[in-house]
Specification:
It catalyses: 2 GTP = 3',3'-c-di-GMP + 2 diphosphate. By secondary structure, the chain is an alpha+beta fold. 71% of the residues lie in helices and 8% in strands. The protein folds into three domains: 132 residues; 103 residues; 149 residues, 2-Layer Sandwich (Alpha-Beta Plaits), CATH 3.30.70. Helix 1 packs across helix 2 and helix 10 packs antiparallel against helix 11.
Length: 499
Amino acid sequence: MPEQRNPSEIAREALKRLAERHLAPTPANYQACYNEIANLPNVMPFPEPPLRQLAAGLCPRGEVQIAQLSRLDAAISGRSWQGVQDALQAYIAAAAPSQGATQLPHEVSTALLQLFEAVFPAFGRDDLHFCAAVDELLAALRVTPCEFSRLEVVLRNLAGLAPYAVAEQAEIREALLKLLHLIIENIGELSLDDAWFKGQIDGLLAAVEPPLTLRHLDEMERRLRDVMDKQSRARARSVEAQEEMRKMLSAFIERLSTMNESSSAFQGKIEASARQIEMVSRLEDLAPLLKDVVSATQTMAEETASSREQLRALQDRVLATEAELVQLHRELDSASSLARHDPLTDTLNRKGLDEALEREISAVRRRNTPLSLCLLDIDNFKRLNDRLGHEAGDNALIHLANVARACMRPTDTLARYGGEEFIILMPDTTLEQGVEAMVRLQRELTKAFFLSGRDKVLITFSAGVAQLVNEERGSDAIRRADQAMYLAKRAGKNRVFGA
């Protein structure tokens, strides 16, 4: 039997893992780490926001329903499906006597229908029994008026099937992740000679590390497309270079053969002339023979010089082709790391920021949720560079990026905007919440000193925060944040202003 670990030990290790992975200490993240260490299935996340919205839409009548709403709130906080079900049933039962019938209020059945229609597609359609129970529940909620007695039977049936469906989805997700890891690792094993390609494979493996989010999957898709594109271009150029090398080698061999034939012919002519000279008895007969020898020698010298030039040209072409291939791989390596990431801080660069901002704005328009962005600029950065040197300045930028990543949520995005400026995208965040988040980051920087040799250096920044407004472009929001940051600088630095 596997060794049973103490829950308190698992809890401590889960907290350590949260810190090691720089994850926000949310209940969902903690539960994922705890389940991973304890080898337990990581069930689907509890839909707390929709349930909160449902509870907020209920209008209690009387003290009994008010008490059941408090019970419902406690069940949501405790993430208890059974508690939510019991509280809703009791709330409905409390309304039955005053209405004279066991019917669910229309606004409640509508809210429940919207909730379940949004939640259940995440379970898929593989489990036929679970799908049938879901369809029966949705059909019961669509009936007006909705009879509570029928709904109670359907809910109890669904409650019995739900845990198995959740566990199955968690197992499917885990199996898919393992399969994806295996595929990526095998691709990497086939291309170990290409350093740029291996770097992309390492990036892909990092992208599929849990917790897995849509953002991670989107990043993984972009990286994989980069790998495929660069691999295709490198292969095509290598094939071209091989063909060029083959043609040059053929020309080289042909030229050697021609030189050999010319040398043989010249040798034969010299030998024939030597024999004729031996037979000459008069001086006047020697002149034509010497003229032929001189002419043959000149021809041979010209052909040798021409062959030497052609061979030298072939050699230059070989060297140029080889240099081109080396440069191609260098460019691919550079493109791999610089396509969307800043090589110094490992944050997104301007291109990566543009793509991330476009993606977040699309999500805002689709879900009608807030999006705030912050533009921060390190205070007195030029003075730091002049006093400690450019290497210390680079390390200060890396330090700021690392501290910012540790304070950010998994859904936030960090990008280097240029020089000592950074931008942080914060989805589902209002302007006030964005300002508070940047003030927290400033406090963390006062705790985490930057070390330059033996010197402790306090890094501060001025920031401007802007919340995207209706139909506003991302560049306009950045411009407003930049103006607010400038005002923060003018007000004394180490401040955060809202736009």
